[in-house]
Amino acid sequence: MYSDGDAARVLDDASGKDPEPFRSPWRRDFARLIHSPSFRRLQGKTQVFPGQESDFYRNRLTHSLEVAQIAKSIAIRLNATAREFKRKGLKIEPEIVEFAGLAHDLGHPPFGHNGEEALDECMKDHGGFEGNAQSLRIVARLEKKATLGGMLPFGPDHKDLRCGLNVTYRSLAALLKYDRAIPIHCSDRGKPGVMKGYYVEDEALVADIKRRILNTDEPPEPFKTIECSIMDIADDIAYSTYDLEDNFKAGFLTPMGLFALDEDIYQDVANTIHDRISKQYPEREDYIRYIDIDFIRELLFLVFEDMLFQSDKETQTVLNARLPTGLKKQAIGAQMQALSRKLASDGYHRVKFTSGLVQNFVSGIEVVKHLTYPQLHQVRLHFETFLFVEVLKNITYHGIIRSPGMQVVEYRGKDIVKAIFKALAEKRGNDLAEDGGTRLLPDDFRLICKGAPEIVKMRTICDFIAGMTDRYAFEFYDRLHGTSHLTVHKPL
After folding, report:
1. How many CB atoms lie within 10 A of CB 17?
2. Which end of the chain, C or N, has fewer beta carbons within 10 A?
3. pLDDT tens digits, residue range 249-261?
């Protein structure tokens, strides 16, 4: 499962010896990550609901902590129960999985998916933008832990010497979710919208990762390590449960309210599940015809059945009472609404509900073996568990995140990101040496742009904006376009 190539780094220790034999290379990767500025900034990036609305809601940092915990639990469980990992030399390293969970959202820009779309549109002819590609870039390039040039980030002809956090190749591989390069021009993508993958600038690095992990110059496609697939599943589990909990706390919906959404929302959920079955469970494509609006409601009923229809003594009393049918239905309806509100507002009920879901989902995992490389074994949810996770995850997305109130906030964020990018990329006056808008960048970013090719300048501007928290993006925009008093003393 692991070899010397996994523990190697782009910049090896000069002595050729492990400077800390008492600490595993994976633990050193973990330490480098949690001490990095990019990791800290996740606390200022929105998960579903803006942080200023309530200190209860999850942000990208707390979400990443939850994903890391779930992912590590999956790895430990598989090591103990799955026959593929019974032998000592074939066990999964939980700390790499934990690293992947903590780092998977580093590349998310301010304002969530709308911020991602905004940056991708700004970079449409310069390599695009995508959150997963940016996560790999942050860890492998942007963080200021190490360079191949000593203290110099760039060499002659603007050759990039940065090594980011200089983590192991196996940890880098755990962040490589999509094994394809994003074309320089969006017209070459095949279909519109944000494309999942890695940047063209990182093609050589990705090829090196594959060689180190598999010890071959002809790696199979697609390339996705066991640690990455576990992180991916843990992310889906966290989305499907904890985002729903935040929604209940916010009061947007109650459990009973999930059964009274617009028909279009259930259809959107069904359509999304159709697409994912085709990609992830091609052997079950015949099942697609059964997944319609009624099926989505039935699965929701099964999720909440125990909580709403079996556990309340008062409801059982009503069911057993000798009442006319009409009165009994009204009484049961009133009890269901009361229980629904209780589940949404009572912390004990919410915790019991979400922890039960997570436990069930973590238990519903299977292994898809790779016949040649155990490093490329994949984990996925049992098909029935997958359906429950997808329904809950996509109900939250289509019913809440795509709701008008949330979209107004995200639309404003998209506008802000584009305005900042335009100001920084604008060429002003005749002083070509400074390239106009890049004068507005902090010193370290501005120095990268000085004398650099156009594509490097655009990527650097994109890196700067992608690293912003939501609050800092608002503040930076206000300093460019607002009416508040300016100060030269507050650093950029």
Report:
1. 7
2. C
3. 777 777 888 888 8
Rounded CA separation 438/448 (Å): 10
H-run or E-run covering 378: strand 378-381
Query: Can you read off the two tokens belonging to residue 480?
Result: 């460019």
Residues in the chain: 492
- Give the per-residue pLDDT at 38: 97
Distances (CA, A) of 121 to 118, 200, 242, 481: 5, 17, 30, 21
3-state secondary structure of 214: helix
Contact 61, 34 (CB under 8 A): no
Continuous segment of H or E residues that includes residue 280: helix 263-280
Q: Is 323 helix (H, G, I), strand (E, B) or coil?
A: coil
| Alpha-carbon span 104 to 175, nearest angstrom | 6
211, 164 Cβ separation under 8 angstroms: no
The C-alpha atoms of residue 471 and residue 111 are separated, in whole angstroms, by 10
Tokens representing residue 413 in the block = 């964020």
**pLDDT of 48 over the 80 cut:** no
Give the single-character DSSP code of 9: B
pTM for the model stands at: 0.90
Q: Which helix (H) or strand (E) holds 422?
A: helix 404-425
